[in-house]
Write a structure and sequence with these properties.
Layout: E1 3-9, H1 13-26, E2 32-38, H2 45-52, E3 59-60, H3 67-76, E4 82-86, E5 90-91, H4 96-106, E6 110-118, H5 135-142, H6 145-148, E7 168-171, E8 178-182, H7 183-188, H8 201-211, E9 215-226, H9 236-253, H10 259-282
Helix pairs in contact: 5-10, 9-10
């Protein structure tokens, strides 16, 4: 099996149907299995998934265990040489997956690849390529310097703004919305860390790919549409989950750094959380 596509679905039936329809054309020339893990949806997603007769071993969780655990479960029943973790709110064009595989085969140092993502208005999504959320990068983003100097290497590190949108380049962080990984690499780094429920798991995985001796590549020559928000509601729970994941990330990856370093990071996360909570209150 050349490619396993793993999609984690939660109450996204209509978006999932669009995604599956786009994949039918994108995989015509690839030996592929599609595996959909349903995180105990309350809509008619599971009935739709069962009706598809997919080649992979799709299954429904008995509760919502989060993105990381569902992805690992899907990987456990997969057979592909390459694994594509794909959000159900994405539209994948023809030839795009073939091009990703071709890139892997011509770049043995590639552990994972991500793609250029756009929204439904064709606007480029900056999270397609990211740097590590270091104190400096987070500070520049928090206080607007990355917006003022979007192409400056120093100030734009959070979203790797200095790297051209339409070129292929190594990056530090890939987006979990559309991330292809070599099977051997995913096995070597023991998959996703299941302590991350929904946010931060792609950053953590990206770091461990690099630590294992591989590179992450952003492929700006391949474009996927990300409709966004299929399984996410911007509310108090989102804020708690997102910033909780950021704190877990700091605890896991920066525990050996100085108290001052960690304090700066935790403080930045707290400030961002307060701003997000205030935004929710004022936009009711």
């Amino acid at each position: 099996m050349q490619l396993s596509i793993i999609i984690v679905n939660y109450n996204s039936r209509q978006l999932l149907e669009k995604c599956i329809n786009s994949l039918q054309k994108a995989i015509q020339n690839i030996e592929t299995e599609i595996i959909v893990i349903d995180n105990n949806s309350t809509d008619d997603s599971w009935e739709y998934i069962k009706s598809l007769g997919l080649t992979g071993s799709s299954f429904k969780m008995n509760e919502n265990f989060g993105f990381a655990k569902a992805c690992n479960g899907g990987f456990g029943v997969s057979n592909g040489k390459y694994i594509l973790f794909l959000n159900p709110d994405t539209i994948v064009p023809e030839k795009s997956l073939e091009d990703c595989i071709s890139f892997f085969e011509s770049h043995p140092d590639a552990g994972g690849v991500g793609v250029r993502m756009i929204d439904i208005q064709n606007k480029f999504l900056k999270e397609s390529k990211r740097g590590l959320p270091t104190p400096a990068a987070s500070f520049y983003k928090l206080f607007g310097l990355s917006a003022i100097f979007p192409k400056a290497k120093t100030f734009s590190k959070y979203y790797e703004g200095h790297l051209p949108e339409n070129e292929n380049n190594p990056v530090e962080v890939l987006s979990g919305a559309c991330m292809m990984i070599r099977r051997e690499v995913f096995e070597k780094i023991n998959g996703f860390d299941e302590r991350f429920f929904m946010y931060g798991e792609d950053i953590d995985l990206s770091i461990r790919i690099i630590q294992a001796g591989y590179k992450n590549y952003y492929l700006g020559t391949i474009t996927v549409t990300h409709l966004k928000g299929g399984s996410t509601t911007y509310n108090t729970k989102y804020v708690q989950d997102f910033y909780g994941a950021m704190n877990l990330f700091v605890k896991k990856h920066y525990s050996n750094r100085s108290i001052l370093f960690r304090t700066i990071l935790y403080s930045g996360i707290s400030i961002r959380k307060i701003i997000a909570q205030a935004s929710l209150l004022f936009n009711r």
